[in-house]
């Protein structure tokens, strides 16, 4: 299975999975970059997969409908069943299983960024697992809480953090460098974070994506997966967290990030 990050807008990635013949795309906010990526590789579009309703993840769906194969998977537009998604042909919720290019992907409910956000987790044969997580988990960060509570988002991130170490984390935005700048303010003494940040700076200097990341790395460097770490707790308490419970710590760090420049 080939995994390609198709750049869109200024900092979105539309993830494409393909086997050399057929492809699926995730969260196509715009159609043109997807059409080019399909044409360059002479791929047939088997499905459009959608994690949540935001326009930068759904705006290209309608224009891509004519590109779907006549035998498209599940009718072609597989999307969260807890939000309004135009042109959806299959509505999915947590624990549903979707077969994409012969690989089973499990749906995980991850409310927080939006109320009905879902993620997709698959284990292609002989390859590292793939997590398609939309705007829930970013490298070094997480999505803003537009529709959910800190408790919901923390539970969602905890569910993703429990996946295998070598899981490839396919986030929908290239926010890594700004996230890691903030993470360094939260945990100035985290050596793994400093190393990873230097690595990502080099990747961006070469114009390469920092994604997909590895879940093992995220657990070591992402403050939003580290609400139980003493250094993160200490920073949260300095930012006004009421106590050291994971939800309070997570909420205080998220609030700090919202205002961080
Ligand atoms: Zn979003
Ligand atoms: Fe987005």
Strand order of the largest sheet: 1-2-3-4-5-6
- Which percent range describes the beta-strand content? 15-25%
Rounded mean pLDDT is: 98
- Coarse morphology: globular
| Category from helices, strands and their pairing | alpha/beta
Uncertain stretches of 5 or more adjacent residues:
none
Q: What would your notes on this structure say?
A:
- The chain is of the alpha/beta class.
- Helices cover 33% and strands 25% of the residues.
- It has nine helices and 14 strands.
- The strands form three sheets. The chain has a six-stranded mixed beta sheet. Strands 7-8-9-10-13-14 form a six-stranded mixed beta sheet. Strands 11-12 form a two-stranded antiparallel sheet.
- Strand 8 and strand 9 form a beta hairpin.
- Helix 8 crosses helix 9.
- The chain starts with a strand and ends with a helix.
- The model has no long low-confidence stretch (mean pLDDT 98).
- Zinc ion binds next to loops.
Short descriptors:
261 residues; alpha/beta; six-stranded mixed beta sheet; 9 helices; globular; binds fe (iii) ion
């Amino acid at each position: 299975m080939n995994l390609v990050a198709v750049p869109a807008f200024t900092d979105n990635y539309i993830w494409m999975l393909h086997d050399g013949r057929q492809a699926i795309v995730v969260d196509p906010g715009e159609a043109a970059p997807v059409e080019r990526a399909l044409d360059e590789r002479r791929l047939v579009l088997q499905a459009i997969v959608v994690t949540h309703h935001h326009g930068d993840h759904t705006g290209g769906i309608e224009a891509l409908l004519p590109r779907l194969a006549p035998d498209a998977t599940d009718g072609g537009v597989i999307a969260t069943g807890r939000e309004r998604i135009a042109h959806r042909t299959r509505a999915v919720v947590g624990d549903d299983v979707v077969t994409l290019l012969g690989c089973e992907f499990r749906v995980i409910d991850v409310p927080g960024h939006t109320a009905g956000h879902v993620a997709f987790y698959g284990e292609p044969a002989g390859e590292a697992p793939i997590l398609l997580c939309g705007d829930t988990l970013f490298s070094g960060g997480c999505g803003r809480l537009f529709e959910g509570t800190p408790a919901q988002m923390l539970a969602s991130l905890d569910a993703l953090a429990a996946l295998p170490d070598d899981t490839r984390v396919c986030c929908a935005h290239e926010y890594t460098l700004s996230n890691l700048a903030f993470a360094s303010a939260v945990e100035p003494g985290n050596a793994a974070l400093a190393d990873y940040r230097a690595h990502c700076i080099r990747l961006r200097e070469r114009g390469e994506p920092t994604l997909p990341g590895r879940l093992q790395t995220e657990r070591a460097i992402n403050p939003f997966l580290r609400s139980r770490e003493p250094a993160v707790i200490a920073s949260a308490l300095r930012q006004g967290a009421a106590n050291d419970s994971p939800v309070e710590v997570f909420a205080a760090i998220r609030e700090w990030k919202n205002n961080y420049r």
